């Protein structure tokens, strides 16, 4: 769990560096990689955090809970980006001389949310694939 939180902090720092260096404008894939990674790591964190609340024999329900929580966090992040673009852009330029932006157009927002969900989905797929494989080995090798 500590490693996951450390990686999330690293993604946030990379995000700040990317804003400063305008990597979002230079490298179109940069935003997608961060959102995908963020969704993946948030799914790990939420799976650990919600471990005692997830049901043993309700895989679909558990997947929907984690995907829903990751989606909620992604939507909250998009709202924060929107608010930052309304409040911070001018003051950052005025005080630090840095031109930045926090949010793109609707296509960017939808793509960000899709990457969050796909990142979480990949984690959940890998988690359930390895759990099923482990369970299958235990059942076939008594």
TrEMBL record:
Quote the protein name from its UniProt record.
Answer: VanZ-like domain-containing protein
Q: Does the keyword Transport apply?
A: no
InterPro entries attached to this UniProt entry? YjdF-like (IPR014509)
Transmembrane parts of this sequence: 7-27, 33-50, 62-80, 113-130
Keywords from the UniProt entry: Membrane, Transmembrane, Transmembrane helix
- Quote the Pfam families the UniProt record gives: DUF2238
Q: State the source organism's domain of life.
A: Bacteria
């Amino acid at each position: 769990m500590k490693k996951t939180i450390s990686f999330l902090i690293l993604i946030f720092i990379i995000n700040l560096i990317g804003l400063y260096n305008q990597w979002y404008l230079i490298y179109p894939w940069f935003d997608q990689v961060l959102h995908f990674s963020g969704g993946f790591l948030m799914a790990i964190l939420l799976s650990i955090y919600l471990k005692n609340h997830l049901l043993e024999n309700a895989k679909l329900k558990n997947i929907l809970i984690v995907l829903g929580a990751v989606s909620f966090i992604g939507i909250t992040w998009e709202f924060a980006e929107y608010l930052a673009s309304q409040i911070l852009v001018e003051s950052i330029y005025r005080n630090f001389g840095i031109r930045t932006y926090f949010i793109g157009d609707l296509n960017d927002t939808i793509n960000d949310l899709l990457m969050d969900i796909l990142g979480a989905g990949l984690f959940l797929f890998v988690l359930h694939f390895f759990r099923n494989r482990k369970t299958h080995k235990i059942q076939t090798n008594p």
